[in-house]
Design brief:
The complex is a heterodimer of chains A (about 210) and B (about 160). With about 210 residues, chain A is mainly alpha-helical. Chain A has one domain. Helix content of chain A is about 85%, strand content about 0%. Chain A contains eight helices and no strands. In chain A, α5 runs antiparallel to α6 and α7 packs across α8. Chain A is elongated and about 90 Å long. Chain B has two domains: about 80 residues, RNA polymerase sigma factor, region 2, helix turn helix motif (Rna Polymerase Sigma Factor, Chain: A, Orthogonal Bundle), CATH 1.10.1740; about 70 residues, Winged helix-like DNA-binding domain superfamily/Winged helix DNA-binding domain (Arc Repressor Mutant, subunit A). In chain B, about 75% of the residues lie in helices and about 0% in strands. Chain B is globular. The longest helix of chain B has 26 residues. Chain B has eight helices and no strands. Chain B has about 160 residues and is an all-alpha fold. Classes of the chains: A mainly alpha (about 210), B mainly alpha (about 160).
Amino acid sequence: MKELDLLKKDWKKNSDSFEQISENEIYKMIHKKSSSIVKWILIISILEFSFWTFSNLFINTDELLRKMNHPEIVLALDLLTYFNYIVGLIFVIIFYKNYKTISTTIATKNLMSAILRTRKTVQYYVWYNLGMIVIISILSYFIAFVYNPDMAFLREKLAADGKAMFFTVGILILIILGLLGIFWCIYRLLYGTLLRRLYANYKELKKIDF
Amino acid sequence: MSENLEQSFVAQLKANQNIIHKICRLYTAGEDAHKDLFQEITIQLWKAYPKFRGDSKFSTWTYRVALNTAITLYRKTKRTISTIEYESHQHFVKDVDYNYEEEEQIKLMYKAVYQLNDIEKALVFMYLEDKDYQEIAETLGISEVNARVKMNRIKGKLKKILNP
């Protein structure tokens, strides 16, 4: 292609015509922070993990549970909490691994799959958290309703009145949905922007397969 | 130790900075965007430098990291480049001689290259830099045959842009 050769000639002619950057400026540059998206996903996930851990330390439900006198529930809830910590920690580790694999030194196509992997992990993480919110809400309603002695009066009343029962369950479902909506919005705000940027990168990289 | 690392990095980068400038020239429009990308590439190179073993040349390694940064880790705010921006961009480059018709053709060609996507630009960039297909293929992580096919398609695309 004649035009491409012409371009090459011009390209070569101009290849050392750039305003040169001094060593001093380079020193300054390498002490600045990169704006990498993956780093932010890692930071936010760690912050989030610590937030849930700390909030658990302050919200104390032990007293309430002891009152119910059902040690098997206490044990089950403890197990669930530990399970949650372990899964959360595993996600943080995967985020860290993703952060490490997205390296500029690998071939472009491998970079593409690394980006895709990060995106998927974040999505799984968000779905897991939303699912857990639903499960924990339903469980706590159930426990409060069935085992809490303070609720005995309400329980009898609802058992007798089908309409009131229907109404109560409806309200509880609405509360769960509301909670889910709030958290979904928070996650969209937290990770949505980052994911969109990652996706834009991925779309660009996908053109390697054109 | 780390100061030594820093010193050797800065010295090598300074000597090879034109590679980065050329990538910035292809991927950005305007002085600010050029400096921005230059900085991001420098940061990424510095971050990856401890892993640089010296089994390849510093320049070869720079090509890969810089291109990957331009294509993936750096997001431009603007995806298209207007004519005005293109003209101002040209001030970056010294004009050397006057061959009006040739100049005009080169300008059109630059404009056409700007319309390519990031991956296509990477191929054109390496072509302009006289990289062989083996190196192009290795950098992008595709096969040599595939790289050739893609380059031919890009030539066709450029022709189409020039003569619609």
